[in-house]
Amino acid sequence: MVRVEFLGPIDKEAMELEIGSLNELARILSEDSTLAQWLKNSAVAVNDTIVRDRETPLKDGDRVSILPPVCGG
Amino acid sequence: MMEIHEGALDVKEILGRWLDEEMNSNYGAFIPFIGIIREEGEIEALSFDIYEPTLRKWFDDWQERARAEGARVRMAHSLGDVPIHSSSYISAVLSPRRKVALRLINEFVEDFKANAPIWKYDVIEGKRIYAAQRSIAMDGAGILFIED
Question: Is residue B143 part of a domain?
């Protein structure tokens, strides 16, 4: 199982999914209308490291974080 | 080198401690940046969420980048509510030479604004409202977005 967490202002419970890549996750999340405003502008971390490739493979136990636009300071 | 504090930062304690710890490190320049929350409209305070594991990785990458130039970065940030006219963010660059430190403090704060996983909310009448207009999509944002 891959755990998917939504950070900061995204008001959504974490999900546990049987997926093997970010591509599969993108397809699942694109069907969720509550995420429509976030997917375009959110970054993605796998096991806390930012990734930039949708082809990134995922394995059992991985954690995916969805990071919406930031404003520290 | 990276600190997270509940609520407003105690600027004098933090900067005094950093100065004590670094005075004998033989850096010729210590350049701090102190962010102070301004009064604006109805805002009573700002509030912050932090995703610490990714923030630590971002900071560690920056420490490597600073080290390559013989410098060091330090940072403190608030978690939760911080009232106006207090500080939520301090960063500093220490370097043997001032020009390196002056350049790095600008690059460090700019990249912090764009890529540190911290979310800001305005607190108005006790409610937290995400500061969407002031927020910036991180590098690499949108990789899960599929065009219709």
Answer: no
pLDDT digits (tens, 9 = 90+) for B80-101: 999 999 999 999 999 999 999 9
Band (A48; pLDDT cuts 50, 70, 90): very high
Cβ–Cβ below 8 Å for B142 and A42: yes
Domains of chain A: 2-67 (3.10.20.30)
Instruction: Report how far residue B8's alpha carbon sits from residue A70's, in angstroms, rounded to the nearest whole number.
Output: 19
pLDDT computed for residue B147 by the predictor: 81
State which residue of chain B sits closest to A42, comparing Cα positions: B141
Q: Locate tokens 């704060």: which residue?
A: B109
Look up the CATH number of the domain holding residue B20. Answer: 3.90.1170.40
pTM over 0.90: yes
What letters, b where the CB count within 10 A reaches 16 and e where it falls short, cover B2-11? bebbebbbeb
Tokens 């700019």 correspond to B110
Nearest CA in chain A to B60: A49
Query: Which positions in chain B touch A71 (Cβ < 8 Å)?
Result: 113, 118-120, 131, 134-136
pLDDT of residue B9: 98
